[in-house]
Amino acid sequence: MNIKVLILILFLILAGFLCYRIFKPIPPAKEVVTSFDVEKYSGKWYEIARLDFYWEKGLSQVTAEYTLNPDGTIKVDNKGFDAKKNKWKQSVGKAKFIGNKDEGALKVSFFGPFYSGYNVVKIDPEYRYALVFGEDLDNMWILSREKTIPEDIKQRFLSKAKSLGYKT
Fold first, then answer.
1. 129 with 121: CB under 8 angstroms?
2. How much is the pTM?
3. Tell me: the pLDDT tens digits for 37-75?
4. Total Cβ atoms within 10 A of residue 131
5. Cα–Cα distances in angstroms (integers) from residue 81 to residues 34, 49, 86, 90, in the given order
6. 73-94 CB burial, b ≥16 within 10 A, e <16
7. Exposed end of the chain (fewer CB within 10 Å): N or C?
8. What are the residues whose beta carbons fall under 8 Å from the beta carbon of 121, sequence distance 6 or more?
9. In the chain, what is the straight-line distance between the N-terminal and C-terminal CA atoms, in Å?
């Protein structure tokens, strides 16, 4: 096979993959908060627990701060401490609602046009504790407005995640 043809085929495969990642639909979780209030959700959250994935691997003291932008999107500012490198790591992105703004189904991006699901599945009435799922079983977070969470709430959130197939 001609090297130019091989390069063209590889380029087309890469272009197809990128198009899929950019334009793929983000389905909301089957269960999301249906009376979601983005203004109450805004502010600083502490990560109590998560399923570790590449970008947060090895980080501690992780926080997420959400700020409502004038255009209706949400600024997402994540920070965490990398003990191996002895420095803070920060990622700033944006989130958009997938459907209605009163539903906790969003998509979030830290890298240009590439979005992932972000679904607020459980939240207490005072917006102190939240259970958040990604678009698949690899992403899950338990968040709190404080650095700790009552054990009964943590266990309730973990039980909910386990019942839906998350490996907690």
1. no
2. 0.82
3. 999 999 999 999 999 777 888 999 999 999 999 999 999
4. 25
5. 33, 15, 7, 9
6. bbebebbbeeeeeeeeeeeebb
7. N
8. 29, 31, 32, 33, 104, 131, 132, 133, 160
9. 48
What Cα–Cα distance (Å) separates residue 159 from each residue in 70, 136, 166?
37, 17, 9
Q: How far apart are CA 85 and CA 133, in angstroms?
A: 28
Multiple choice CATH, 27-163, 3.30.43.10, 3.30.1330.10, 2.40.128.20, 3.40.250.10? 2.40.128.20
Whether residue 31 contacts residue 99, with contact meaning beta carbons closer than 8 Å, is answered with no
What residue segments make up the domains of the chain, in order of their start? 27-163
Token representation of residue 100: 């209605």
Q: List, in sequence order, every beta strand (DSSP E) within 31-167.
A: 43-50, 59-68, 74-82, 87-97, 105-111, 114-123, 129-133, 140-144
At position 134, the amino acid (one-letter code) is G
Q: Which residue has 């420095």 as its token pair?
A: 87
Q: Cα–Cα distance between 166 and 47 in angstroms, integer?
A: 17
Q: How confident is the model at residue 112 (pLDDT cuts 50, 70, 90)?
A: confident
